[in-house]
Amino acid sequence: FILRSLLALLPVIIFIGTYAVLDPFKVIYRYDEPSAPGDTVALGHNAGFASIKCLERNLKAGRTYDSFILGSSMSQAYTARDWSEHLPAGASIFHLDASEETLQGMLDKLRYLHDHGIKVSNALIIIEEAMLHRDPNDTNFLFVRPSSTTPDVNWGQFQLAFFEVYKNPTFIGYSIAPERFRSTMLKKRMATAMLETHTDSTNENIFTSLDSLIAADPDAYFTAKRLQSNYYCPPPSPECPGITPERERIIEQIAAIMHDGGTDYCVIVPPRFNRQQLHPCDLAVLHTHFGAQRVHDYSHHPYSTDPRAYYDWAAHLTTSRCAALLHDAYTTGR
């Protein structure tokens, strides 16, 4: 009976074994580089996990950091170069972001830095309105918080999120016929097209080619078809605040870490095309804990109605717009 059971389970054991050996999502073993040169697709890119691993690689290489940009993918276009113009000379900057970051995820990362003896002298905190509504316990492989920074997520739970993708028929098809299943993988967000330039020393993903195209010929990028898909439809006013008592406690803890560590920080609420603006009650909570002079609410900014201010329908501001917001935040009200 035992032998028959083992034989029946053999295909499952082999399948799990191939996941452990191949590590297709690069979430089991350590790697010197996150992807091979020339890669056009990143499989199962959990940006929160990738950020921590990138930081660990750089620390191991002897680099040190004292300034951090925290937020979701909305924070990526706030570049180290642009932010450095508003910081003391010699500041060493690192992006510590995560896809669809949550307040809890941000707190986890700050605690990770504290636990590893990394002093945060400067912090740029990007909090879009949607972040205030997100569930920190999302188990989707793109958004699950890494076990290395999250006490309530163990290694097995983290790996299970990726194994669920590994056994998906679409992924299996992609493993056999990559070109045939590539578009489906991208549509289902099982893979990410690597259109940006990654700088490992700062963990920046910058759309260099798109920035060049937009600067040289904006109309070549913002075509009529693209603008039509991004037509403006005023979003409804937020009916209720996103900050619950539990989320306010998290904000309070984030602010306490900033205050106790003597961190010079700036909080930006970015505009997002066709998205809700920040609820007045949420803004009041941010003011209470971070200080009104350090919180800059741009959710009502004219960029929120301009489709040319964004790279895509997901409302990622272009680098030049982010630089303008940074300049405004650091030259007014501080």
Describe what is shown at a glance.
Helix content is about 45%, strand content about 10%.
What does this protein look like?
By secondary structure, the chain is an alpha/beta fold. It is 43% helix and 11% strand. The protein has helices at 2-22, 47-60, 80-84, 103-115, 155-166, 169-176, 178-187, 208-216, 218-221, 224-229, 245-260, 280-290, 319-331; strands at residues 41-43, 67-71, 93-97, 122-126, 191-193, 197-199, 204-206, 264-269, 295-297. A five-stranded parallel beta sheet has the order 3-2-4-8-9, sandwiched between helices. β2 (67-71), α3 and β3 (93-97) form a beta-alpha-beta unit. The longest helix is centred in the N-terminal third of the chain and has 21 residues, at 2-22. The protein is globular, with a radius of gyration of 21 Å. The mean pLDDT is 88.
Layout of strands and helices, then pairs:
Blueprint: H1 2-22, E1 41-43, H2 47-60, E2 67-71, H3 80-84, E3 93-97, H4 103-115, E4 122-126, H5 155-166, H6 169-176, H7 178-187, E5 191-193, E6 197-199, E7 204-206, H8 208-216, H9 218-221, H10 224-229, H11 245-260, E8 264-269, H12 280-290, E9 295-297, H13 319-331
Parallel strand pairs: 2-3, 2-4, 4-8, 8-9
Antiparallel strand pairs: 1-5, 6-7
Helix pairs in contact: 4-11, 6-7, 11-12
